[in-house]
Specification:
The protein is α/β, with parallel strands linked by helices. The protein has two domains: about 325 residues, Metallo-dependent phosphatases (Purple Acid Phosphatase, chain A, domain 2, 4-Layer Sandwich), CATH 3.60.21.10; about 80 residues, no CATH class. Helices cover about 35% and strands about 15% of the residues. It has twelve helices and 14 strands.
Length: about 450
């Protein structure tokens, strides 16, 4: 029986075409090698989405895992070597939900010394307390499985991934660079249209067209100021030559002509937009109602729901199972540790590239999705009669993968919230829950139907 548990999740290994690229392969191999040298009895637990099986549109069924093994032989060979020294346990997430549907996967992964537990929740014991382990998709209305283990019972999230993410992998080779494969890193998925527009502008747009468009955008605010000043001149609140015939501006020579041309072009654009604004609004409203009437548009489906449903699930678990000291989940790709008295909620994050939307230094230019990595893992072990949760980040020198122009105009994103490196819990200590309406992460409590199913029995 292990005395130390190491947690990672959301590796998303695999996918059609460019999606099969594994940016963090070297770091993952080194991490697995390092686990072999631990002095204590260690169990590595990958709590969901180890593989990106949903990201395959060209193969089906059990052939998906075979494709992952074929594309990443070094990773699976390292699983085999590491698994000879420590226990490696894997539970399904939503992107590798197939693992819960075909019993043959248990034997296939066992060939690489990986123990597949096709359960929605598993538990482990440490220092007299219980670790509750899940991926968390059952608390996400768009990704919970209506009939766990049934390969034909798929949530709406599967179809979104198949139509959008897998397709992006197939078309990414036609892009200028491999940016399209990063669609897996866009979260929440509502951000995808804005992310596509940003990358079109900075990567795919004709350089000549971008050279024309950028000055128009940069001087858009000046154009608005010019229009406002012209109105003030017309009604007599400003001198007649303050804006339109200012001698200082005329002294610019050729630059004045270029500036006036840009302003005139922007004025025409503004006029056209104002003329079309009301018809476009009416058209959009009518089209939306028509699509809803035909059932094409899914009203209320929202992918990015924050962490509130998962924290509420943790609250439920702590209240109904008094021995549970640590609630571990993933799925949202946001690593975190929340401490409630002597209980902790751990989100294992992701090893995928993170894309964070940041504003540019110039307000009218499209925002940029700034890339970063937060390769991390959590260790949970006993220290006397206490439970210790340690958080460690694996350093990586992955490139930022931004064009020179993106680097020039992008603001630096804020640093992610700090996670304590060491947290000590007393499994017999107090549970200090915040008020229900103070639990951070979203706006409302989850639907009770979204809470976990197939819970293992834990003696209180």
């Amino acid at each position: 029986m292990a005395t130390e548990y190491v947690f990672i999740s959301d590796l998303h290994i695999g996918g059609d075409q460019q999606l099969t690229t594994l940016d963090f392969k070297d770091e993952l191999l080194s991490f697995l090698e390092g686990l072999e040298e631990r002095d204590s009895d260690v169990e590595l637990i990958i709590n969901g989405d180890a593989f990106g099986l949903w990201e395959y549109a060209e193969v089906t069924g059990t052939d998906k895992l075979e494709r992952v093994i074929e594309d990443h032989p070094q990773v699976f060979e390292q699983f085999r070597k590491t698994g000879e020294e420590i226990d490696i346990t894997l539970i399904p997430g939503n992107h590798d939900y197939d693992l819960a549907c075909y019993s043959s996967y248990v034997d296939r992964l066992a060939e690489y010394n990986v123990t597949l537990e096709p359960e929605i929740v598993i538990t482990r014991e440490v220092a007299g307390g219980t670790i509750w382990i899940e991926h968390g998709q059952q608390h996400d209305a768009n990704n919970r499985m209506p009939d766990w283990g049934n390969p034909a019972a798929l949530p709406v999230g599967y179809f979104v991934v198949q139509r959008i993410v897998a397709a992006a992998g197939q078309y990414s080779e036609h892009a200028r660079g491999n940016w399209l494969r990063d669609i897996q890193s866009v979260a929440p998925m509502e951000e995808i249209p804005r992310w596509l527009l940003s990358n079109y502008f900075y990567r795919e747009m004709s350089p000549l067209l971008r050279t024309i468009v950028i000055p128009l955008l940069l001087f858009f605010n000046i154009t608005l100021l010019y229009l406002f000043g012209t109105v003030l001149e017309a009604i007599g609140l400003l001198p007649a030559d303050f804006f339109t015939d200012n001698p200082l501006v005329q002294a610019l020579g050729v630059a004045d002509i270029v500036l006036e041309l840009i302003i005139a072009t922007n004025i025409v654009i503004i006029a056209v937009l104002l003329l079309l604004a009301i018809p476009f609004w009416l058209f959009r409203r009518d089209l939306r109602h028509t699509l809803e009437r035909f059932g094409v548009m899914l009203s209320g489906v929202r992918v990015g729901q924050g962490d509130r449903p998962f924290l509420n699930a943790a609250r439920d678990t702590f209240e109904s199972h008094s021995r549970v000291a640590v609630f571990v989940y993933g799925h949202t790709h946001r690593a975190s540790l929340t401490k409630w008295g002597d209980r902790a909620v751990v989100n294992t994050g992701t090893w995928l590239k993170k894309l964070q939307h940041v504003k540019t230094r110039f307000s009218r230019l499209p925002g940029i999705y700034y890339p970063s990595f937060r390769l991390n893992y959590f260790r949970i072990f006993s220290e006397g009669d206490r439970i210790v949760v340690e958080y460690e980040v694996i350093e990586t020198d992955q490139p930022r993968d931004l064009t020179w122009f993106q680097r020039l105009v992008a603001r630096r994103p804020p640093a992610p919230p700090a996670i304590p490196e060491r947290t000590v819990l007393d499994p017999d200590g107090e549970l200090e829950l915040p008020a229900s309406d103070e639990t951070p992460g979203s706006e409302s409590d989850p639907d009770p139907d979204l809470l976990r199913t197939n819970d293992p029995e834990i003696d209180d």
